[in-house]
Write a structure and sequence with these properties.
Distance between the termini: 31 Å
CATH architecture: Alpha-Beta Complex
Helix content: 25-40%
Strand order of the largest sheet: 1-5-2-3-4
CATH topology: Protein-Tyrosine Phosphatase, Chain A
CATH class: Alpha Beta
Number of helices: 7
Oligomer: single chain
Strand content: 15-25%
Structural class: alpha/beta
Length: about 200
């Protein structure tokens, strides 16, 4: 059910019943009028996203995993090859232990990759509710192009409570294609034609 209400009424109702969910829908111009940072304006939120430069990590299927530093990360899984479930689960646990807080899965069996990261996140907190700062968000993009999945990763894949300091493209393939994959990512971030 949707209702149009004033801010005062919203605050009054929420004070009486703080368990109620509140959704606020806004339109263009509201941020600027409210002295909040706009998306594309001067010093807007877009300034922080357009400089995103991902790291590229090539993983050959079923090989040992390299050490990576732990940091809050956005991981884009580009799966070009079919892998066994055990190795997929091993990679997912490795990513979560390394600080993955948002996983975007694309390619072969991307829904299975998504589910594997979800399971690894549950196992990392012993199947209990995870604290907000450890909550791992996941999406899969089976029907989208790689370029569109990259656009989503850079423009929409943000954690609600933690600043993701790194973006890592994890390419599951027998042969790496770092230059090609990074070029697709960079080209898709130019949104001049999307406005």
């Amino acid at each position: 059910m949707f209702a149009l209400v004033t801010t005062a009424a919203l605050m009054r109702d929420h004070a009486h019943d703080p368990s109620r969910n509140i959704v606020i829908l806004t339109g263009a111009g509201v941020s600027d009028e409210s002295s909040l940072a706009t998306f594309r304006g001067p010093r807007g939120l877009w300034e922080g996203t357009k400089a995103m430069k991902p790291a590229y990590l090539h993983l050959r299927p079923n090989e040992d995993l390299p050490p990576i530093p732990r940091r809050s990360s956005r991981i884009v899984i580009v799966a070009d090859e079919v892998v066994c479930d055990a190795w997929m689960d091993k990679v997912a646990a490795w990513l979560v232990q390394a600080g993955c807080l948002y996983a975007v899965a694309w390619g072969t069996a991307c829904e299975a990759w998504h589910d594997s990261v979800d399971r690894a996140a549950l196992e990392a907190c012993n199947h209990a509710d995870s604290p907000n700062e450890q909550f791992v968000m996941t999406t899969w993009h089976a029907t989208e192009s790689l370029a569109d999945a990259f656009w989503f990763a850079a423009q929409c894949a943000f954690h609600p409570t933690v600043d993701l300091v790194a973006t890592i493209i994890v390419h599951i393939a027998y042969e790496g294609r770092a230059q090609e994959v990074l070029k697709i990512f960079a080209d898709r971030q130019d949104l001049a034609g999307d406005a």
